[in-house]
Specification:
Layout: H1 2-14, H2 28-33, E1 41-51, H3 59-78, E2 82-87, E3 94-100, H4 105-112, H5 116-119, E4 123-133, H6 139-146
Antiparallel strand pairs: 1-3, 1-4, 2-3
Length: 151
């Protein structure tokens, strides 16, 4: 139930807002830059991060893997292949999400294989095609303007 609710919320925020009283202010240059279709949307791949079979109990190893995991997230965000990432806060089997700025499951699978927590078996990924707003790609640019402290 929690997964469905989370995905419904994500879908809601990825759809354009309907019922606008003002006309669209279409920007062809931006639409092209973001690879948007006529609806301002594009295909991504969503990864659901799940608890893996090999969760380390050693606190030093656990901290090192977490640091490497966060560094990998930063690297993918900087090169534009990852546009959204974050943990779930309820300590369930679902640990978090990635939203990859790629069009195929195969491309996303290669990216997930760069994650140290996946390599160690601490996390596993479930990959799904996702259709969302092309504007999601600009989220990191805005985030940098409101972030005071890094991870």
């Amino acid at each position: 139930m929690k997964l469905i609710t989370c995905l419904q919320i994500l879908l809601l925020f990825s759809l354009p807002f309907y019922g606008q009283t003002e006309p669209f202010q279409f920007d062809q240059k931006l639409a092209t830059e973001l690879n948007a279709d006529d609806y301002g949307m594009k295909t991504y791949v969503m990864a659901l991060l799940k608890t893996g079979p090999n969760r380390s109990t050693d606190s030093i190893t656990k901290a090192q893997l977490q640091r490497a995991h966060l560094d990998n997230i930063t690297k993918m965000a900087e090169n534009g292949t990852l546009v959204l990432a974050g943990p779930f806060l309820d300590n369930g089997e679902l640990r978090g999400i990635y939203l990859f700025n790629v069009e195929t499951i195969e491309e996303a699978k290669k990216l997930t294989e760069t994650d140290p927590l996946i390599k160690s078996g601490g996390l596993i990924m479930e990959l799904h095609p996702f259709y969302g707003s092309a504007a999601i790609q600009k989220m990191e640019e805005i985030h940098q303007k409101i972030q005071k402290t890094g991870f």
